[in-house]
Design a protein that fits this description.
7-stranded parallel β-sheet; 18 helices
Length: 430
């Protein structure tokens, strides 16, 4: 199987290499040594048991925080290493875990996987949500290294359909049959993992570790400093739109222009999900006649021929979304007005904020439904309803506070996935 997969991967590289070269030239070399793609990652220095945790991008890496903390508490002699597929994920891992070995996840060629396993020597491999690779799982299984999925999530439209393609189905079924344990976020995801080929007795519903990772409280350290450095006025209302996606900022800026007719002191903060879009959002903001105040520079970009333009604040740094949410009067969670799958609503709800989302929440249906049932979130059918929804919450602080408190209690009620997951990991390593 590894040889066959290597041949298929090699064919794919031969076909796609112009695109790969173009992306590298346009995006730069990245924040990881090129050799890490081939498994030449840092070696861990000690001989204790090792847990290798892998997350695709920023959201998955953030979700590892409680797992790592629980592991350190319950098995302090266990070594933890972290890998990520994306630049933002790897940067966040290095920020969260400066004392741990962190590295770029390698290409799934068999030699690269063997290189990683030789250097890391894991006792168990933990894949966050659904980051499965056939050579990794095949070779780890051959070496009797358990591979598990934590915080498991499998979407019907993408994951299940993709793994059931005729050419891929046979490989996928073999791969999922070798998974030692899945901690699924809910019953729906659990049934999908079973459909993909994971034996039923290896699938367990644990809930989402993101409920445990969400900060529950009224304050995030550093939020006042952030406000002061950006010029946000804490005594005036702040509308924070977090994790926004392409095609969404235009709608938010239109809604903001309408809101300013009734709330002249309202401040808007845009925090795009992907860093490669920061410049585009800054240009869009200026083109709409607003001044753009960027977190990264502190200097405003002004539109031409506009006297005293209204500022819009752009959160164009990584790892500060929670601080922005903590400062918010009202929160809109992005990638929900357009069909991009949605974004994590738990962070804002845990901070006791009134949360608004759009109709597209496919990737976070369970969390959104939980908050809606608890009256801690409002879901809109279209962007046209945004101004009236924000207006209602700004004019009725008691209603806003009740929403925030209800959302926070809903998040607290779903905690416990981390402890359950770590119990299973320790059992498999014993």
């Amino acid at each position: 199987m590894p040889l066959l997969l290597d041949l298929l991967y090699g064919l794919a590289v031969c076909v796609l290499w112009p695109i790969l070269v173009y992306r590298r030239l346009t995006r730069g070399p990245g924040n990881a040594p090129f050799r890490e793609l081939f498994g030449y990652v840092p070696s861990r220095p000690v001989s204790a048991n090792c847990v290798w945790i892998h997350g695709v991008s920023l959201g998955e890496i953030n979700a590892t925080r409680t797992l790592v903390a629980e592991l350190h508490q319950r098995a302090p002699d266990t070594v933890v290493v972290i890998s990520s597929t994306t630049r933002t994920g790897l940067a966040r891992a290095r920020q969260l875990y400066p004392d741990l070995v962190t590295f770029r996840f390698p290409l799934d060629f068999s030699f690269a996987i063997r290189n990683v396993l030789k250097r890391v020597r894991p006792a168990i491999i933990v894949l966050m949500e659904l980051e499965v690779w056939p050579n990794l799982i095949e070779i780890a299984t051959q070496r009797r290294i358990p591979v598990v999925i934590a915080n498991g999530r499998a979407t019907a439209e993408k994951s299940v359909r993709r793994f059931n393609w005729p050419i891929i189905r046979t490989v996928a079924r073999r791969m999922f049959a070798q998974i030692r344990w899945v901690g699924a976020q809910d019953e729906t995801y659990a049934s999908r993992f079973i459909e993909l080929g994971v034996p039923k007795d290896r699938v367990e519903v644990t809930g989402s570790v993101k409920y445990d990772a969400a900060d529950v409280g009224d304050h995030i350290p550093g939020q006042e400093t952030l406000a002061q450095e950006m010029g946000l006025r804490l005594k005036q209302p702040i509308w924070v739109c977090g994790s926004t996606g392409p095609g969404e900022e235009e709608l938010l800026l239109d809604a903001y222009a309408r809101l300013l007719e009734h709330f002249n002191d309202l401040q808007l903060v845009l925090v795009p999900r992907k860093p490669e879009r920061f410049d585009d959002v800054a240009r869009l903001t200026v083109s709409r006649g607003f001044a753009c105040l960027r977190r990264s520079t502190g200097a405003p970009t002004l539109p031409p021929d506009v006297n005293e333009p209204r500022p819009v604040f752009l959160g164009d740094t990584m790892g500060e979304l929670r601080k922005f949410y903590a400062l918010a009067t009202v929160v809109f969670v992005g990638r929900t007005l357009v069909p991009l799958g949605g974004s994590d609503v738990m962070e804002a709800a845990g901070l006791g904020k009134a949360v608004i989302v759009g109709p597209h929440t496919d990737n976070f249906v369970d969390a959104v439904n939980l908050l809606i049932a608890a009256h801690g979130c409002r879901q809109l059918t279209s962007s046209d309803a945004l101004p009236s929804a924000v207006t209602d919450l700004l004019r009725h602080p008691d209603r806003r506070d009740k929403m925030g408190a209800a959302g926070r209690e809903a998040i607290i009620s779903r905690r416990g996935a981390t402890a359950q997951t770590i119990t299973r990991l320790l059992d498999l390593m014993s």
